[in-house]
Structure formats: C-alpha cells, structure tokens
Amino acid sequence: MSVVGSMASASFNVLTGLIDEESRSRSNRHMCRKVSLILLKDNGLKLISKMPERILEKTEIKPTYARGKAYKYRVKLEHGDYAIQISLVKNLWGKVKGWINVYNYKGELVYRAKYVDGELRRSIGNPIYAWIVRFVAEELCIPVKKTRLGDEGG
Hints:
Blueprint: E1 2-6, E2 12-24, E3 31-40, E4 44-47, E5 55-61, E6 67-78, E7 82-90, E8 96-103, E9 109-116, E10 119-125, H1 130-139, E11 146-148
Parallel strand pairs: 10-11
Antiparallel strand pairs: 1-2, 2-3, 2-6, 3-4, 3-7, 5-6, 7-8, 8-9, 9-10
C-alpha cells in the first residue's frame, strides 16, 4: 500500500493498492478471494465497493486465476479510519489459507494475521490491533476455530 499524499486543506489521505478479486482456476480446483474493507471511526465496517464517495479511482486488473475479475482501488481515508485487506485461497483439497492486513489512515501496515484452516495467528504488528481482526472475522462469518493474535491474557 502506498499513500499518494494528503491534501493540506482536507483531512484525508489517499491509499492505493487495495484489491477486490474473485477468481478460480480453469479446472475449478483453486479459488482466490480478496476483499477490501474500511473500518470507519464512527460508522462500522463497510465494503469499499459499496462506498462510491470514498473511491477516487477503480481500475480493472488481471486476476490471480484464469476465470474471474479483479479491481484495484485508490481510496481516501480520514483520520481514525482503518483499511482492511483480506486475501484467501482455497486449494483442490478444500484447505483455505490467507491473511488479513490492517492499515491505518496513513496507509501503514499496522497488523497482519495469517489464516490457515480456521486458525488465525499474528504475523506482523502490535497486538493492540488484534481486535480489528477479531471484529472482521466475526462480521464476515469467517470460520475461526483457534486464535493466537497476541492479545490473549494469561
């Protein structure tokens, strides 16, 4: 992700590199799903594709697999917002792997959680942002059996 620049008069930053994708291989054995979200400071979790007022540019890009579509976004984030990028791949045996990235309003990666078959584990970042990953997994009904996000007490 990169911040293109912040407007001096306005109170937002421009973030590029968020991707929405839904694609599958020719054999239908592999599937890739990427979802971009914004956690608004005052209004909850929203899909970027459902927020046209925040999208500055939407570009169609080549998807990971042969069949499907992918889009890359330039969005504006206000102070206190978080951008979330989820990427999941399902293989021919039904195993799901991927990650959930959390970016602050400046476009800096503040937390990454790895997802492997129902287990969420902290990869990069400060555990104070683990609540965002838990909230996203709960809101999107991502099946989670076990978590090791670094904020567990004990």
